[in-house]
Write a structure and sequence with these properties.
The protein has helices at 2-22, 30-42, 45-58, 63-87, 109-124, 129-145, 151-171. By secondary structure, it is mostly helical.
């Protein structure tokens, strides 16, 4: 058990070090900060829900495609909320230009939801896979850049999203 705790401590220190190198500072260029804020909001709750609700309503493609995205979003969100409360990792203390949506950092909900939706659509529409998945990954990165998550939080959220989309796709 002591070895496991030591490894976790080492990973946490490494994560904090990467965070300090990769996150913006208050002195970063305004255009850079605003770009990352725009990207992070584009992967937020409203946009993620709209990305599944609008296609369900407008029916631009087979509804089963959107149901995979909706189920992936819902299941991954539930997993994130349970894990956040179980782990209880506090957020970094220096956000840039945005507020913390809640007090827990691990895993990142934005990274999870944005990748869950974009990956579900990427599986259904492989011609658009690169920009879709790229955008989902970029939203995750924005959370580190803006100082609201550690890199490990984002990576964990992206693993949850990927596993959820895989599971839902296999079942559906």
């Amino acid at each position: 058990m002591t070895r496991v705790l030591r490894v976790i401590g080492q990973l946490s220190e490494r994560d904090r070090g990467l965070y300090l190198r990769w996150s913006l500072s208050k002195d970063s260029a305004r255009a850079l900060r605003e770009t990352w804020i725009l990207i992070t909001h584009a992967g937020g709750t409203t946009v993620s829900i709209a990305a599944v609700a609008l296609p369900l309503w407008l029916r631009p493609w087979d509804r089963s495609v959107t149901w995979v995205a909706a189920a992936s979003l819902a299941i991954s969100h539930l997993a994130v909320q349970v894990i956040k409360r179980f782990v209880g990792r506090p957020r970094p203390s220096k956000p840039i230009g945005i507020d913390h949506p809640d007090r827990f950092s691990f895993p990142s909900g934005h990274a999870t939801s944005s990748l869950a939706v974009t990956l579900a659509y990427a599986v259904a529409f492989p011609h658009f896979a690169v920009p879709l998945v790229g955008f989902g990954l970029l939203v995750g990165w924005s959370r580190v850049a803006l100082g609201v998550h550690y890199p490990g939080d984002v990576l964990a959220g992206q693993v949850i999203a990927s596993a959820t989309v895989l599971g839902v796709s296999l079942i559906g």
